[in-house]
Amino acid sequence: MDWDKLRIFHAVAEAGSFTHAADSLKLSQSAISRQISSLEDSLNISLFHRHARGLILTEQGEVLYRTSHEIFTKLALTETQLKENKEKPKGSLRVTTTVALGSTWLTPKMKEFLDIYPDVRLELLLDDRELDLSMREADVAIRLSPPKQPGLIQRHLMTLQMAIYASHNYIEKYGIPKTLDDLEKHKLIGYGEGMKPPIPEVNWLLKENLNPRKFRKLFFTVNNIYAILRATENGIGIATLPDYLVMNNKNLIPILTELQGPKFHAYFVYPEELRNSKRIQVFRDFLLKEIDETIPNKKNFSL
Asked: What is the pLDDT of residues 27-52, one digit of tens each?
């Protein structure tokens, strides 16, 4: 296969139309169309279904796209590694983590990191779904469960714990529950159904100390941990929250403190091929230092 035609095919498949591909490649639509037709003729297959709203890959086109995408991804990685200054970290670093952890714990620490490493172009991708590191949707992930995908390196960052909280306003209005049975009289906030939560056992309180066939009812549900925090702060009800989310939060009061919620772990994860990346090494070391220096409650957080 002609390398230049393959490069154009990959750009068209990414863009979904000749028009958008022409903009990115700085070529005319007619030139791109001729190259794609020539590639299809040489392979004796159709790579795209053409219709008025754009292009859709055929089954054979999907196969070629997956292979070409892997090739161009590895080439981009190689280019980055060749350009990277070994003495001073430099270049793009795309980090993904959950919306709650990224918004409340990670983002406030990034000014110090960027002050130390001004030549690193940091991009935070906050998403409760797990981005595919092997496909370079991100370079690094901070995940709240161990990665199942092969070919990834993981480093344990910290151990976290769930606990039960309510706002001052809620307690003033409805009182404070003294026992688990008292929760039947209160409004519970939890993670909604239909999506995989980023934290394991996030709704553990619904079945705590109950017959396995029974569960407590939720008054209000939302499919985002940070939104659960905000709902609790605004007095909608009582919720279980991870301790990293409520550190130094003066709006919330821990309740039923004798009850130990489930623990879970945060991991620093990146692909094997980025093992020697200076940017990833300094970012990992920075996070470990921050955890060691800024998290006082070592019984809930550990390295």
From this structure: 898 999 999 999 999 999 999 998 87
In whole angstroms, give the CA distance from residue 173 to residue 239: 16
Please determine, for residue 228, whether its predicted confidence score (pLDDT) is greater than 90. yes
Alpha-carbon distance of 221 to 261, in angstroms, equals 19
Query: 148: part of which helix (H) or strand (E)?
Result: none
Strands (E), the chain: 48-51, 54-57, 91-97, 120-126, 140-143, 152-167, 189-191, 220-222, 239-242, 252-255, 263-271
For strands 220-222 and 91-97, give the pairing: unpaired
In angstroms, the Cα distances linking 290 to 95, 156, 279, 298 are 16, 14, 17, 13
CA distance 203 to 161: 13
> Tokens 């040489």 label which residue?
42
* 238: β partners: 188
State residue 168 phi and psi, 5-degree precision. Answer: -60, -45
- Three-state DSSP at 268 gives strand
Of 233, 220, 98, 111, the residue nearest 165 (C-alpha): 233
Enter the tokens of residue 6: 């393959």
> Whats the size of the chain, residue-wise?
303
Are 239 and 190 within 8 A, CB to CB?
yes
**What would the two tokens of residue 272 be?**
């094997």
Residue-wise pLDDT tens digits, 164-216: 999 999 999 999 999 888 888 899 999 987 777 888 888 888 887 765 666 78
Hey, what are 152's tokens? 């990834």
Pairing of strands 239-242, 220-222: unpaired
Computed on alpha carbons and rounded to an integer, the radius of gyration of the chain in Å comes to 25
Per the confidence metrics, is the pTM higher than 0.90? no
**Residue 38: how many other CB atoms lie within 10 Å:** 13
Q: Which residues contact 57 (CB under 8 A, 6 or more apart)?
A: 13, 47, 48, 49, 65
